[in-house]
Design brief:
This protein is α/β, with parallel strands linked by helices. The chain has 13 helices and eight strands. Strands 1-2-4-3-5-6-7-8 form an eight-stranded mixed sheet, sandwiched between helices.
Length: 292
């Protein structure tokens, strides 16, 4: 068992649209908080946040998102469109009796949180995004910003079919492991590596995970995303090797009620590195009845 997850309860939410495996902590009658992992993570990636949020009285639920781990893995790129991913979370919240959601996301999970805020604000009470810009800002900058084009080369490589999967499997998922280990000062332990590899080896998982990128590359994005009214907290490690900090500032400028927390020495995995201040900020933000 991964450290921090000893008290987790695991279950499967059988939704009309898909089944999502999840980890849960905290009192069943506490305010619901949904944690959304990114690539190539699973629900286990929230082991630094779940105990603290549960101790603060929240009912914390972290699903393996569509295509990951033990959750459903529909075929085809279109099944991983941002609208499908966002609708999963609306349905997932309803499964727990909530129609107004508090959502925290990292990486691709933050992209889903941004998309919820942009397109399904009626279902969102608050959102926090960790080291991912708004998807429309991200995609536009992949092509239009020289520095971001360089950082996003790996995304465009995902457009190829089967070859990325073959290369990753041939190397026993070491590209994923090295990304986690190199980026996070807090480190990734051997027990975590084995748990991740088990998840990545699930039938259809690897292709489904890569389809998230393929779907984004195919999706038409608005030139000018509309204003976001949902209170949104953006947390950002400025040494992210995948995204320029300028994208964070451009994204938060879309928010009517947005706040930021920047870490000059933080990487893409800042929530693993700056655990205490991030947990404290998340608790304050999620508990507050006031606007961000």
């Amino acid at each position: 068992m991964i450290n921090g997850m000893e008290e987790a309860r695991f279950g499967v939410a059988h939704l009309d649209r898909i089944s999502l495996h999840y980890a849960e902590m905290g009192p069943a009658d506490g305010p619901l908080v949904i944690l959304l992992h990114g690539f190539p993570d699973t629900c286990l990636g929230w082991s630094h946040q779940m105990p603290a949020l549960a101790k603060a009285g929240f009912r914390v639920v972290a699903p393996d998102q569509r295509g990951y781990g033990l959750s459903g893995k529909p075929r085809g790129v279109r099944a991983y469109d941002l609208d499908e991913l966002a609708d999963d979370i609306v349905a997932f919240g309803a499964h727990f009796g909530e129609t107004r959601l508090r959502v925290v996301g990292h990486d691709w999970g933050a992209s889903v949180a941004w998309w919820l805020a942009s397109t399904r604000g009626a279902h969102l009470e608050k959102a926090a995004a960790i080291n991912a810009p708004h998807p429309a800002v991200w995609k536009r900058s992949m092509y239009g910003d020289k520095a971001q084009r360089k950082k996003s080369r790996y995304v465009k490589a995902m457009r190829l079919r089967w070859l990325p999967e073959m290369a990753i499997r041939r190397k026993n998922f070491e590209p994923f492991v090295e990304t986690l280990k190199a980026a996070a000062r807090a480190g990734v332990f051997d027990g975590e590596v084995e748990a991740y590899k088990k998840a990545w080896r699930e039938p259809k998982a690897l292709t489904s995970m890569l389809h998230w990128y393929r779907a984004l590359l195919k999706k038409e994005m608005p030139e000018a995303p509309g204003r976001i009214e949902t209170p949104l907290l953006l947390i950002w490690g400025e040494k992210d090797q995948f995204a320029e900090t300028a994208l964070a500032r451009e994204s938060i400028a879309l928010c009517e009620r947005g706040g930021t927390l920047f870490f000059a020495e933080g990487s893409h995995w800042v929530h693993r590195e700056e655990v205490q201040p991030i947990n404290e900020m998340l608790i304050t933000f999620l508990q507050s009845d006031q606007d961000a």
